[in-house]
Design a protein that fits this description.
2 copies of one chain form a homodimer. By secondary structure, chain A is α/β, with parallel strands linked by helices. Helix content of chain A is 32%, strand content 23%.
């Protein structure tokens, strides 16, 4: 039993893609064989196409961010597994126009390889491709390995900013450079109080005692390097903010913050954490351009949360504020003010 | 340990209210002592005020539905506990205009009593009050008790339709009558594969084996009358649809459907369920005016879902399609078409 309410054949992804496309038929369109989703309102003649994708189990990432102001097409893999390069290829063909296409890729080996193969094929077809690699997870920062930091919660920030920037008609190289800067300005940390349900056993993927916390957990149930005694929530937020702020590159004292649920964590907790995060940022002298609170980049039903900070340049503010008309990105204040 | 990421004082509600109001400051405003939230864009001179409320732990219900096209003010109680009548009173004073105020109340004894006391006081102040009682939960339908069916997932449907109807300038009696008709046209059933975390012990509130399902569960962790062997997801949806359709009053063969997560259930599962529900409705000859899929009326972090069907009159369709500019109600197709 992979998940409590799985289809009879055990693979939740095809049914979920169908159900998602039927729920949001005004915004997205599902193509099968190979599976990819495209935004209905894309405009490849007017802007560089934006394509993302990756393993499933992190919904609403990425398909929930299809639409005006964000992504044009996505390639969803099986749960916690990279999409096939043919999915990326088809998604990219749908998204690309004369200006080419940008791949937003979370830093995992499988994703890098499959997006890379698709990119080679696209270039053979005469389509320009650039990659924006998201690698925000501080828990995997190490001088000892060459793989670099994992891509996690900052993906939604990069996709938001890059989508709005693409809408202004910037060229592919400018956008690729900007995307790299958005990612470089972002760092995240995640904790879990309970592992997600294993797709193989139906039980938690790893065991924690009630007074323990997995500190620096990944979004695929990778255990952290550290299992720590559970601190008070106030102390936990202070520690995470200290480490994230120390990990950010130098720049303006202004940030976007994401309080992201890992799946099984309640809005009661996430909004309470948001209150602590805003106080903690103010004490550190950091202005806040905006925040997101919600289950945006989860690991199935893991109980836990991640914090992401992105150090914001003045010129990025309008891209953050621009509306993103997608199934899952919240209305921005600019939109509600209409 | 009430919840994994609770504040040091153990009560998650005040911090969550602050964090919520700070996350959605463009849409809502928090008043403390007694705690209530009001929509920024309310217009009591132009429409009858709409107030709801109830125990916390069901977020985004109700505060997530504050804003244009839905609610004007809400009174959030402690977790799974009715708000104090003073909270309802203050919320109602903020929402009421010359046309009066309507209370949308889920059918629980505590909520009925506290909204009732507030209504009496409002009437003493010369404010007209009507009540719309939501009582959709088929699992609690019984000739043996006088309390009637519980109010659960249909609340979001009633609040959506009534909000749009109020925007058209209808009078308080017409709206109260409509609200009663929306509620009467709605039935729900909920199941759980794992209980929510107890606020007292930090452990699941009741125990289920891996192959069991709680059939007809409530939104406060009330156990169901039946614990059943877990059927296939396909058979489960068929059984639930059969019972809900049989429970609906006679009327047009057109429905709104809500696939609601109980807290810990993934979007992968909810969208897969949505696909099965749409197929099941089509097989039963029911047209679909619209659907909602997501965690809208949960019971903290319970793993499970509820299905709600509302039999739609032709004249209600435009109210369903009208935009609701709130923190949590999805964009409607009418809105995205702009």
């Amino acid at each position: 039993m992979p998940l409590p309410f799985h289809p009879a054949d055990g693979d939740p992804v095809p049914a979920a893609l169908r159900g998602f496309a039927r729920a949001h038929a005004d915004l997205v369109e599902l193509h099968e064989k190979p599976a990819h989703l495209v935004a209905r309102h894309r405009d490849p003649g007017r802007r560089v196409g934006l394509v993302s994708g990756g393993g499933s189990g992190h919904e609403p990432l990425h398909a929930g961010f299809l639409g005006r102001g964000m992504l044009d097409a996505v390639a969803p893999g099986k749960v916690f597994a990279s999409p096939h390069n043919k999915q990326v290829l088809e998604a990219s063909r749908q998204a690309a126009g004369p200006g080419g296409v940008i791949h937003v890729v979370k830093n995992y080996t499988g994703d890098r390889i499959n997006f890379g193969i698709a990119a080679e094929r696209l270039r053979l077809e005469g389509i320009e491709v650039r990659r924006v690699l998201v690698d925000d997870d501080l828990a995997t920062e190490s001088d000892e390995t060459a793989t670099g930091r994992r891509g996690t919660g900052a993906t939604v920030v990069v996709e938001k900013l890059l989508g709005a920037a693409a809408d202004t008609g910037l060229g592919i190289d400018e956008l690729a450079d900007l995307g790299a800067r958005f990612a470089a300005a972002s760092r995240s940390l995640a904790v879990a109080s309970c592992a997600q349900t294993s797709m193989h056993t139906g039980l938690p993927s790893f065991q924690l005692e009630a007074d323990e916390l997995e500190y620096g957990v990944g979004i695929h149930g990778e255990r952290a390097q550290k299992t720590i005694p559970r601190p008070s929530t106030e102390d936990l937020i202070d520690r995470m903010l200290d480490e994230i702020v120390a990990g950010l590159p130098a720049g303006p004292d202004e940030v976007v913050a994401v309080v992201n649920g890992m799946g099984g964590t309640t809005p009661l907790e996430l909004y309470g954490l948001h209150d602590l995060v805003l106080d903690g940022l103010a004490r550190r002298g950091l202005a806040v351009s905006g925040t997101l609170v919600g289950t945006l980049v989860p690991a199935l039903d893991m109980a836990g949360f991640s914090l992401t900070l992105t150090r914001m340049q003045q010129s990025w503010q309008e891209w953050w504020a621009a509306p993103a008309i997608t199934p899952a990105f919240p209305r921005t204040a600019k939109e509600t003010a209409r």
